[in-house]
Amino acid sequence: MTTVREPAVTTSEELSVWPASTAEHHRGDLAVGGVPLTEVAERFGTPVYVMDEAEVRERCRTYRDAFPEAEVLYAAKAFLCRAMVHWMAEEGLGLDVCSAGELELAVTTGFPAERIVLHGNAKSPRDLETALRLGVGRIVIDSPSEIARLAAAVGPGGHQKVMVRVVPGISAGGHEKIRTGTADQKFGLSIADGYAQHAIGRILDQPQLELTGLHCHLGSQITSVKPYLLAVRRMVGLMARLHEQHGLVLPELNLGGGHGVAYRPGEQALDLTALARKVRAELSEACAAAGLPVPRLIIEPGRAIAGPSGIALYHVLSVKRTGDHTFVAVDGGMSDNPRPALYGVRYALRLIGRQSTAPTAPVTVVGRHCEAGDVIAADVQLPDDVHPGDLLAVPVAGAYHVSMASGYNMVGRPPVVAVRDGHARLLVRRESLDDIRSRDVGL
Ligand SMILES: *Cc1c(COP(=O)(O)O)cnc(C)c1O
């Protein structure tokens, strides 16, 4: 089945999921941050990840503008490197980290530790030791056993601000594996079964732990405001009960992240302006009804800042036609982007660098790894004359690709390049065989 291709001009709809700086360049090329993608591929090789610095910064500003009264923490697990740490510091965001590694990278890059929140359903002794040594702003308690462990590590003379991760019993998110608001998953302490209340009572018994508020994170890739409003109601409900029981007035409320983005043209992103307006209204109403002061809001977007700011570039290595399938294999795959294999996500991938007049045909773009599930994009339309050497670009590749990259097949993890004002610079270099060999120390 082939369809007649329209004139090879990129439509604004097609570009709607690309960074705002994206512009048509000659010969079917696109420029991002003023740098043609063909140039990036040539200079740094492929696969390569490109981050549009201005897009990252603009997305941070959009959050600061929409939530001027709130603390905005970037969820580092979406993608972190030292440049990202700098950009977040300069844009006035805090950081949400979930390991000693993310935390140390941020603090050793100069990020103020008091603006960092540590998460994790199973924090290791090293995570906690690093957090206390570096003076992390808050630690989010995720299990009952953590309370005594943390209190002991802080010591009787010490002091640490903590929050509690609460499971509000709300199902939201783009895929079962990224829904974290209900009780049947590993994160947090449930309101419904009383675990959250019980844990809070035990925290209050530890004088060196200062409980500053409640935290919840419903899931990821959420595109509707409604679950967040329900979360506000449930969280304020719990705050009201804690006020009755313990006379507790909590100054902070952390609603987590999960703000959805469009991966393909026509898909819906979460409306941040509506989210801010409705959450604000719901929060003041619920607090007024409960006779509580409005807590300071904290939000933790990851994907919505990094995702649409990044692009993955691959070269086609082979094209294989089998039965009624065409497989276009590229030089990366599940080792740099495990998301299709994990969640079955879909991308609006496109050909870059030449204008084809061939009709388009449905193809499956696959990776180079030794797994049949190593698919980058199933059933996408590409020009029928796609051939080895062609360059393909995947938009909305900035979050949960490089940060989830693996060592599978010893291909080496890809480099990350920043583009800005017509210049490209290397942020993270490609992992070499020497890097891999240097860890392999036994015989
Ligand atoms: C993953 C995570 C986030 C960020 O989620 P996104 O979907 O990337 O916005 C925020 N807070 C917590 C606790 C998380 O685990």
SSE blueprint:
Layout: H1 12-15, E1 23-24, E2 30-32, E3 35-36, H2 37-44, E4 48-52, H3 53-66, E5 71-75, H4 82-90, E6 94-97, H5 100-108, E7 116-118, H6 125-134, E8 138-141, H7 145-154, E9 160-167, E10 189-190, H8 195-204, E11 209-215, H9 226-246, E12 252-254, H10 272-290, E13 296-299, H11 303-306, E14 310-322, E15 325-330, H12 339-343, E16 350-352, E17 360-366, E18 375-383, E19 391-395, E20 416-420, E21 423-428, H13 433-439
Parallel strand pairs: 4-20, 5-6, 5-13, 6-7, 7-8, 8-9, 9-10, 9-11, 11-12, 12-13, 15-17
Antiparallel strand pairs: 1-2, 2-3, 4-14, 14-15, 14-19, 16-19, 17-18, 20-21
Helix pairs in contact: 5-6, 9-10
The chain binds pyridoxal-5'-phosphate.
Strand tally: 21
Average per-residue pLDDT, rounded, comes to: 95
CATH topology of the largest domain: TIM Barrel
N-to-C CA distance: 54 Å
- Overall body shape: globular
- Give a list of the ligands: pyridoxal-5'-phosphate
The count of helical stretches stands at: 13
Instruction: Quote the beta fraction.
Output: 15-25%
What is the domain tally? Answer: 2
How would you name the CATH homologous superfamily of the largest domain?
Alanine racemase
CATH class of the largest domain: Alpha Beta
The structure class reads alpha/beta
| Unreliable runs | 1-8
- Give Rg in angstroms: 23 Å
The CATH architecture of the largest domain can be named as Alpha-Beta Barrel
Helix content: 25-40%
What about the largest sheet? 9 strands, mixed
EC number: 4.1.1.20
Pathway: Amino-acid biosynthesis; L-lysine biosynthesis via DAP pathway; L-lysine from DL-2,6-diaminopimelate: step 1/1
Modified residues (N6-(pyridoxal phosphate)lysine): 77
Enzyme class: lyase
